Amino acid sequence: MSLNWLLVFIPLALGLDWYGASPIAIFCVSALAIVPLAGLMGQATEQLSIYVGATIGGLMSASLGNAPELIISGFALKEGLGDIVKASITGSILGNLLFSLGLSMIFGGWGRQRQQFNKTVAGVNGGLLFVAAVGLLIPALFHFATGKEREVSTEIAIVLFFAYIASLVFTLKTHRQLVETEPGQYGPGKEQVEEEEGRWSKGKAIAVLGGVTVLIAIMSEMLVGAIEPASASLGFTPIFAGVIFLALVGNAAEAMNAVRFARNDQMDLSFGIAVGASTQVALFVAPVLVFLGYAVGQPMNLHFTYFEIIAITLTVAVVSRLTSDGECNWMEGVMLVCVYLMFAIGFFFLPA
Amino acid sequence: MSLNWLLVFIPLALGLDWYGASPIAIFCVSALAIVPLAGLMGQATEQLSIYVGATIGGLMSASLGNAPELIISGFALKEGLGDIVKASITGSILGNLLFSLGLSMIFGGWGRQRQQFNKTVAGVNGGLLFVAAVGLLIPALFHFATGKEREVSTEIAIVLFFAYIASLVFTLKTHRQLVETEPGQYGPGKEQVEEEEGRWSKGKAIAVLGGVTVLIAIMSEMLVGAIEPASASLGFTPIFAGVIFLALVGNAAEAMNAVRFARNDQMDLSFGIAVGASTQVALFVAPVLVFLGYAVGQPMNLHFTYFEIIAITLTVAVVSRLTSDGECNWMEGVMLVCVYLMFAIGFFFLPA
Amino acid sequence: MSLNWLLVFIPLALGLDWYGASPIAIFCVSALAIVPLAGLMGQATEQLSIYVGATIGGLMSASLGNAPELIISGFALKEGLGDIVKASITGSILGNLLFSLGLSMIFGGWGRQRQQFNKTVAGVNGGLLFVAAVGLLIPALFHFATGKEREVSTEIAIVLFFAYIASLVFTLKTHRQLVETEPGQYGPGKEQVEEEEGRWSKGKAIAVLGGVTVLIAIMSEMLVGAIEPASASLGFTPIFAGVIFLALVGNAAEAMNAVRFARNDQMDLSFGIAVGASTQVALFVAPVLVFLGYAVGQPMNLHFTYFEIIAITLTVAVVSRLTSDGECNWMEGVMLVCVYLMFAIGFFFLPA
After folding, report:
1. Which of A120, B39, B208, B223 is deepest in the core (most CB within 10 A)?
2. What superfamily would CATH give domain A53-67+80-196+235-349?
């Protein structure tokens, strides 16, 4: 199940770039190259977190776990592609909550009557998703209600980031035992690493982390540069590319883990990856990108399109409803994937 | 409790039509004539399903159970009354989820502290309703976000229909025992028939099915022809007539069964009828009408009005919330009926 | 914890008014003076209710508990400040559901793993909130869908008021024992009074009630007269003043009680105050103000702004989700307060 063979796409991407290949080829190959790098970065983070104690380790895991998305988005932001960055935030939320979680429920639930997961954790995550939905909705709502351009994005980003900090205190301090009913629940990479590869030395973990970061940065710059011409050649809007494809690149490795844990009937792990990734994108990645936007001189707002905010809000409502009972089955997975398909159809036909 | 005495309205309707009576009279009488015919069609389907084995029987019951709506809507579609057809879809969803289910909770819950029903079944149905709400919302959202007319209705209809097929596999195959905790749960007509009338021969069932189909078709053509002039005479908009009256015609017999089962404290049956009818209208009738629209040369889209989609979305959210705990009481029924009344007020005053 | 020392602001307010002080000073001082008066009115109502039997007492408590809001809003309505009245209804709903309940969960949950409350009561209250949200949404939706000015507010107000009456029958008659699992659950003032001050004589209760009503009326007139000039001086819009400040004035005493009960791990009481206040504002105060509007010759509609209705709808959805499991913790409180802050940011920047 390892995706490491995809690393072969790194030299291929560099070669294609050197020979000035078509943007479509560069987009696809650099995207495929990032998938195993994102997976390796997660592994290295988990390995390193073993050496720094549980709390700092949890913090590292929660923040560095989103490094691939942040690196890709940072380059896109620098190129003035703020709308595509926002589309990839939307896509990351929809993709994780509907596609990854849906596939997990289908593959996990097939052949089983039901699968169970921790209701309280699901409740807290469901609540955080609602907070995120409100935060991503207010700037657009503000624009709609007033027709004015005064952005409230920075203030909203601060509140979202505060909610994220509070959730870390909850998860890593006051309710630690709640989310640790199964070992490694919020560090699924950890268990995977231990099973498959044993413990790394501290030096190896740091070296891998550094090397992978540089490689992701190089691939991301190529990927971002190819988005617009590649989308144009393929007849996609850049928004569709952002919502569907860009969002998958940073999350594919995690999605595969989520499905694998579900298949093993470890729905708590699966749920932790898919829903955790969504809350982190909304409460950590999105605010950090707003702050980063000021740093790179390309201020980003949180003014999403109507189609995006309604998609996010309804997705949160559906997932929240289906997970409130602490049980799932394959049919609920089919529902999530159907909702994903319908939104994807909408985004596909939306004009630029 | 039999509604068969209403069959007397069939000859009356034919007579009124012959003598060229007022559209109001023809509308009312043909509508009343369809009510017992829809009930009889349900009975005949249940009877026939006994002879064909459980799975085929379940399929027949799930698809033929919607035949009256499909026949009425087919004639309306042929007459170019697509908006009224969509209004009757909206009305069927609101009427079943708010009015039928609300009345069932009131009559069933009065004098009892609480009534209980299967939470898992309620969860799956609640999820399907969300899928339906998203599907019926996207075309309008698409139109709103873009101002363009590109319809995504056919693609959405295919996804909704796929969700319907999957739900049949879930109900009739993989989770059969879940929905059969009480005998005949999803075939309430069956139990009713057995209690009241005994088993029919296969020939009788087929003959009744054929005869009733012809009569429904004749009454439907008269009903559809009278909608617009009758609405105009009564000061209603055709949309109000579709949402409130037309929706009741095909569902009145089922609604009475739902209330009766609730009174007997068989809320699972009651719930199965009211919520099942809504999911079938959204996931089976609506897509089939889109496909049928191409066949009759009057393509129908799923572009509902804003008022309709917000009514559907909020209704799904309210019902989903009230049924998530597997318990109900009369006050929850009052809430559903109040929400129905408020939407009915809105539709009444909406200009054409 | 008594707020009675704030009574000193009554003579201060009168003095400032006499000397023609700045509107800001008059607004603040008269607002502070109303806080203890509202608390005293609640106490007097509870004391009096002891003498009239449980059912009449419950009715008195449910209706007179909202007297301060009604008095303030009545004066504002007479001055033609209908938009500010509606803003204070919005603010009262948001403030109670997000700020009071959120603070209660934070202060009550800190140092505890979880707090529990009655799920069935939470379910009924959650349902009533949805009914309220639909009712407050339809007039704006009607306006949006049609662009026409035909108001449906009076009809909607009648349905909301009917739902309120039904909920009183539920609470005081058919399901009395449900909400009385802890003594005084829906009369938190009662317990507080008994603990702190003993029983009052019937005469004292009536005298206090009368005196307090007169004082609230005087202070309210001063407060209402100062809203617009004070808001202008402070750089707030009147809507922001209504949503945030005016809403707090009538509810501050109750909010403090809610937090105090939460701290004592009596979340059912806390929940009853915060959520009960919201449902009463939406189902009793709002309709009564519509009826009162006709009486004072300043008809008020229920046409809220988009920002208000989306804020109310999402708030109801969030609270409904977080309370559906009958458990809470401090993180859920942080979420509610974060959502409150984000809406407050939105209202702050909204132009008049």
Report:
1. B223
2. NCX, central ion-binding region (1.20.1420.30)
